[in-house]
Amino acid sequence: MPRAKNEEGLSFAMQAKEEIAAHQFPEHLQRSLLSGFAKTNGSLRLGEGGEELDLSTESAKVAKTLYLLAGRRYGGSPHFAYSRSFGRGKRTRFHVLIPHASEVLEDLRVDFLSGKIDPSVVNGTEEASCYLSGAFLASGSVNSPVSSNYHLEIAVSSASYAKWLSHLINKVLSHHFTSKVSTRRNQWIVYLKRSDQISEFLVLIGATEACLEFESVRIDREQANIDNRLLNLDSANMSKTLQVAAKQVKQINYIVERHGFDAFPSEKARVLMQLRLDHPEASLGELAELLSEELSTTVSKSNVNHLFRALEELYVEVGGSNDGE
Questions:
Q1: Number of domains in the chain
Q2: Is 269 in the same domain as 130?
Q3: H helices of the chain, where?
Q4: Which helix (H) or strand (E) holds 99?
Q5: 200 & 100 share domain
Q6: How confident is the model over 46-60, as a mean pLDDT?
Q7: CA dihedral 206, 209, 210, 215 (to 10 degrees)
Q8: Does 226 reside within a domain?
Q9: Which domain range does residue 159 map to?
Q10: Which residues contact 43 (CB under 8 A, 6 or more apart)?
Q11: Which residues, 6+ apart, have CB-to-CB distance to 180 below 8 Å?
Q12: Torsion over CA of 235, 242, 273 and 321, rounded to 10 degrees?
């Protein structure tokens, strides 16, 4: 079973993001991805040449992908900046700064004052999936499959945008998602909880390897749960077998002490009763095999069960009581 982090110390969510970032995105889909990222986690800042669009991430690989896509689409000179948080868990953020922010936002159809998603950047399944890839890269997270608490989310700062993003996820063609929206501190969270939908979403946004790892661990866990249930069932069946066997041994001893083995009406019954005394833990199937060997003929499990029903009737006839049995 994989660990929560890989050998490079990356979380499962970051592994998924860097897998997405490693793809070669066709030119006609690059705008949708950049739009999803900018709308979800972009901001404006004042640079030397005017306003710049700031796309920030904790992953150098994701930052490199954003830099290359922005450079190809807008030319000019996107550039990097770095910031570092203080306190516990110091983290470096990489900032891709794109000049001429107003023109870029116009092309991406991003309006930070509106919660709506412009239909032109999500007007097909491919465009919608790339938009969601960008949104996930910007502020998405997914629990490690090692955890049994399945959860994938995208955090945004606008309630109306969260509703639009959830609506987009739930209406993607050929998929059946049921994302929901909740709040956490000053954020709105668009999330999926069902493991099968999380797997499908990972494939949709291009994290196929992450999906395979997620499914592998999930299947292993479910198989372990099945094995535990079967073990519990076996234990319950064994307990029931022992209870029934103890009852049969008591009835046989009661009859034999008062009337001997001749009280049993047939050789088959007499041999079976002796086998039960010799093998008090045996199941009906095991007794059927032993009886078949003793009599050199085939005796079925149902036949053994019938003989034990006859034993109970005989026990009552000779004065035994079934009270509390």
A1: 2
A2: no
A3: 12-21, 27-41, 60-74, 101-108, 125-139, 159-171, 195-204, 208-259, 267-278, 284-295, 301-317
A4: strand 92-99
A5: yes
A6: 88
A7: 120
A8: no
A9: 12-206
A10: 53, 54, 56
A11: 166, 190, 191, 193
A12: -140
Residue 215, domain member (yes or no): no
34 belongs to a structural domain: yes
Mean pLDDT, rounded, for 154-183: 91
Q: Does 166 lie in the same domain as 26?
A: yes
**Phi/psi class of residue 9: alpha, beta or left (left: φ > 0; alpha: ψ in -120 to 50)?**
left
At residue 8 the predicted structure's pLDDT band, cuts being 50, 70 and 90, is low
Better-scored residue on pLDDT, 149 or 14:
14
Do 25 and 71 have their domain in common? yes
Give the end of a domain, one of 187, 206, 225: 206
Q: Domain check: are 192 and 255 in the same one?
A: no
Question: Of 160, 191, 206, which residue is a domain's last?
Answer: 206
Structure tokens at 265: 């009406």
Buried b (16+ CB within 10 A) or exposed e, 68-77: ebbeebbeee
Contact (Cβ atoms closer than 8 angstroms) between residue 270 and residue 255:
no
Q: Do residue 165 and residue 241 come from a single domain?
A: no
Q: Which of 136, 117, 162, 134 is nearest to 31 (CA)?
A: 134
Q: What is the pTM of this model?
A: 0.69
Q: Which two tokens stand for residue 169?
A: 């996820």
DSSP string, 247-273: HHHHHHHHHHHHH-GGGSSSHHHHHHH
Integer CA distances (angstroms), 290 to 40, 240, 271, in order: 72, 20, 10
| Phi-psi domain of 118 (left: phi exceeds 0; alpha: psi -120 through 50; beta: other) | beta
In a domain, 214, yes or no: no
Residue 84 has φ and ψ, to the nearest 5°, of -135, 130
